[in-house]
Every structure is written in structure tokens, then in C-alpha cells.
Hints:
It is a single chain. With 237 residues, the chain is mostly helical. The chain has 11 helices and 2 strands. It folds into 2 domains: 5-84, Winged helix-like DNA-binding domain superfamily/Winged helix DNA-binding domain (Arc Repressor Mutant, subunit A), CATH 1.10.10.10; 89-229, Up-down Bundle (Four Helix Bundle (Hemerythrin (Met), subunit A)), CATH 1.20.120.530. Helix 6 packs antiparallel against helix 7.
Amino acid sequence: MTTDPGILAVATHIKDLNHHPIERAVYEAFRRAIVTGSIPITKRINTTEYAQALHISRTPIRLALDKLVADGLVQHKPKTGFFACQITSDDVKEVYLIRKALEALVINVATEKMSPEDFDELENLLKETDEANQQDDIPRVLELFREYHHFMYKKSELIRTAEIISRGNEYLKHFRSICLSNDERRDIAIADHWAIFETMKARDTQTTVELVERHLDASLDFLLLNLGKRGDKHEHD
Length: 237
């Protein structure tokens, strides 16, 4: 059995996507493995090895990689092969630029539509996050952060907007998880969520937007610092 982290990740994702046609499942599995950092950027993606380990032909793998080249997530080097692209500081900044514009919209629309019961539900979610954080249960905190955002998306009913944000968040999932593993950054993020909750409940739209933007700016700064410490470069090699 293979121990290659990339192959194992792709295999896991394909299993989760087995209800999709094989071409789509393979593409989505590779995309998820790349954006979460499971496929090392320094190691060639050997299509033969992947095909043998996944018990599929090379054709859907090549089709998936060609599409990911077009997406900018995979690089094809002549006479060498396919490699996962590096996430750059410019990539991160672009994702956060989109998040700042769209998350403020989502939260404002959600606020207009939320009932007192909805605010009670959101408050309970934040209390549960506090408890998990106090217990240093980082996986649970990360899960509750996702629930927090999904709650906002659901209440806003802006389905397409939420999909755009979610796709960008998934692109940076690996690095965001690392950042939220930092105790200080995690405490600040949770405090920000509480402050946003209070201004939402008060129907203070202007302050809510300011808090969301400040929260995302701080998150971006921390993530870029972390990206630099990991030795990521500005350009794709």
C-alpha cells in the first residue's frame, strides 16, 4: 500500500466523491488535494503511479491535470511533467480582496433576515466555540468556525455568493488551519466573531462592515506572515 501523501489524499477525496462521474471526481479530488497542500509542490505528479494506486486509467488523470493547468493550480513542465503550483502572496491577497467585498454583503443581508431565534442560535454557536477553545480542541474550533460561516451563508440566502467565498476559503484551507493553530490568533478571531455578533444584533450595519474588514485584514496579515515563514515565493517556479 502506498504511503505517498498526495495519492492517499486523492484516493480519500475520490471515495467521498464516488457519486460523481469519474472524470469530475478525479478532477475535484486532485483540486482538493492541491489546495490543502497534500500534494508537495516539489514532487512530480506521476500519472502512472496515481493510476495504479487508484485503480483507474491514466486518461481521467491527464484530463484532470490539464484542466487544473488551465485553472492555474497545476504547472506542466515540458519533458518533466506535472507539478502542483505554489500558493503565492498575490493569490492570498486576491482571495481576501474577494472575501472582504462579499462577506460584508453576506453578513449584512443575513442580519436583515435573522430572527431573534436566529441570533440565539448564533450566540450558542459562539459559546460552543469558546468552550472548545478553552479545552484546546483545535479541530473542533476549526469545525465551529466553518459552521459560523455556513450559518451566515444560509441566513443570507445568497447561495451563489456563498459558493464563491467557500471556494476561495478552500483554496487557503491548509494555511488558514495553520494560522488558527496559533493560540493568540485563534483567541483574536473568536473575539472578533463575538464583536461582529453584537453589532449585527444591534442592527449597526456600518460598524459591522468595519469589524468584518478589520477582522479579515488582520487574518490576511497573519496568513501572509506565515506564508513567508514557510519559504513560499512570489513567483511560481
